[in-house]
Design goal:
Layout: E1 3-7, E2 10-18, H1 41-49, H2 55-67, H3 79-89, E3 92-98, H4 105-113, H5 116-125, E4 126-132, H6 136-144, E5 152-159, E6 163-171, H7 176-238, H8 241-266, E7 270-276, E8 282-288, H9 293-303, E9 311-315, E10 320-322, E11 339-346
Parallel strand pairs: 3-4, 7-11
Antiparallel strand pairs: 1-2, 2-6, 3-5, 5-6, 7-8, 9-10, 9-11
Organism: Dioscorea zingiberensis
InterPro entries: FAF1_2-like_UAS, Thioredoxin-like_sf, UAS, Ubiquitin-like_domsf, UBX_dom, UBX_domain-protein
Domain UBX: 266-344
Length: 347
Amino acid sequence: MEAIEHTNNFVRRLVRLPLNILEGMSRVLGYGVPRRNPQHPQIQQQQEEFPVVSEEWFFLNLFEQQYGSVHPFFYATRFMEAVKMAMDESKFVFVYLHAPEDPGTDPFCCNTLRSQLVIEFLDANFVSWGGVASRGEGFEMAMALRASGFPFCAVVAPASGKTIAVLQQTEGPVSPEELVEILQRTIEEQGSAFRASRESEEETLRRNRRLWEEQDAAYHESLLKDKEKDRTREATRKLPASNKSSIKLKEIIKETQSKGSAASRKTQPITKIRVRFPNGERREKSFDKTDKIRSIYKFIDSLDIPGIGGYQLISSFPRKVYGHEQLDMTIKGMSLHPSAALFLELI
């Protein structure tokens, strides 16, 4: 079932699609939007300059070559990986299909996608994914979503029953204010129903997982206690009576010290920092709240992840940069304690 509503300069269209359509889109290439020429000069130049760039990175490299690095945080992943990330974070996916040859693309990219208003709003509320409309998954998405005008944007939500829902789509250039208004209205109209369903599923999973973990922990703790009692009983049986009281005293001292260490660990000023990379990979590490921002950069550099050259760390909504000038500031001083999620933005 499909509902279409024309409002101002955009079309609202709610369509439910099975996930497997995204795996078999090559079988529907004769359907919907006509095939676009993959040899557009800008795309051909990109292919010549970056002959080994992966399909996941092609859109981002093409966009930044033309418009620079100021833009929403587009994840360089397969589309279904972006959907999975959105599910994990209870967010929607913002899809942008890039058509370099379309006359509306330049003003939209320059004035709207590079707008600080749009960047901050998308980074805070969506998992953003982009593709080139004439190739790869970008072309397949254009076919599946029946994109007939560009620039093309859509809001996609993961749903239950192995389906996704296209909640909103816009065709043609819109201003930053118009785009944010459209996205905000979509969140308000559709967000509560989808999130309620998702939260119910997640609560059930959390409850089952917690019960399993508690049962497993109790079982292993019981086994360890039984083994320790057996070892102590056997060792005590073999010792002279004069040594048994000394062993008991040592056990009491050891138990007291162990409890003291556990209490000390609980009061340590630990900060958990989670870093999300452009390819969707996430890494987490604990720091002391008095550690410097420089320590987070050293941790990232130590990972030696391919494709990471110059970069800076950012948080979203409001967008805040933790760059060269903040390296010697403390984690607590930069309001990242007791936990924070940061994005790695390539420069």
